UniProtKB/TrEMBL annotation:
Keywords: Membrane, Transmembrane, Transmembrane helix. One of its GO terms (cellular component) is plasma membrane. The keyword Transmembrane applies. InterPro entries: MFS (IPR011701), MFS_dom (IPR020846), MFS_Exporter (IPR052714), MFS_trans_sf (IPR036259). Residues 19-404 form the Major facilitator superfamily (MFS) profile domain. Pfam families: MFS_1. This is Major facilitator superfamily (MFS) profile domain-containing protein.
Amino acid sequence: MAVTVRADINPHSAEPTKLFTPAFITGWLINLSQYLCFYFLITVMALYAMREFGASEAAGGFAASAFVVGATVARLFAGWATDRFGKKPLLIGFVALGTMATLFYIPASSLPMLIAVRLVHGFSYSMASTAVMALVQSVIPNSRRAEGTGYLALGSTLATAFGPAVALFVIEDFSYNTLFWITTISSAIGLILALLIRKPESVLRRQLAAASQPKSAWSIKSVVHPNVVNIGVFMLGVGLAYAGVITYINAFAEERNLTEGASMFFIAYAVAMLVMRFFLGRIQDKHGANPVIYIGLVSFFLSLGVIALATENWHVVVAGALSGLGYGTLMPAAQTIAVSSVPANQIGAGISSLFLFTDIGIGLGPILLGILVSATGYSVMYGVLAVVVIIASVFYWATLSKHSMYQ
């Protein structure tokens, strides 16, 4: 699949342009609030369903994953809707719907009602997150695209690191209802910020000109944009490997008696990614995607290898840092590629296409890897995932690396 580069982007431009505008900062905070709502609940929802409604492990698992089901369905429409109806209106509408959904966790009095709330919450989250990312991408200077995307990705990284920890603290020291109220407040803050966000005049003029163009109808291209297929397939493989980390790292640590290391895994992940964001985005803007992608692939491969062989708590912490340099680098780099590969009026479709592929990898991972773990154990599984990263590397080298945008 050929890659088309947006004509309005010069990735090697040295023109100084302001990145941290009020719109960028506000969008970053909205993105953080949405990810916190996700991570506050995803790690505790299965247990809540089992305790509150006497659900089986399978039913409790579905109560947790129903959010992902709703989010995946939304991916089929999120990109097209964002490009068709506008980023800010869609953002406000679906952050509002998500806030309403969080209010219904407390009165949900049965498992079917809880699952229904999770489906609506997941759908609204996916639509809102696509809209806010497309909005922020529209205000990032072209010459600092990768740097800005990397900083934007820090919101999800911080939520990954601290959201589950906060959730566990709240349910142990307070109650699930307290956690639901905290989630509602986080979503409401995002709604207030969405109402307040303002785009720079230059962006508004550009979008006004784009608004005069014919609006496209929903199509397969709006779900899977042709220009994003190759980087999407690459991230599907990377997402599959990442699923093994986020799904089984705690179970692996318990089996190896490495729970202290596992408790620090995502903290190390966040710190490593935070530090490298000051360098890798600028490298990608100046020298293309290849150096950053290869750094991410090598780091992620090493992370999986260290986990497979881990015998000490510090091994798991090191693996967390390497994973931050790995997946934490690859995701924003791939998002930059996706945005740079589509026309300016199709940024929503580019972002949602990439996330659809990544979500498929992360969604299929627990199912496929659960079978593998049962048959071979955790060490073999992480070794196999290291091989998956090698296969993804070969695919990237063969299909993407030689294009001028990546060099």
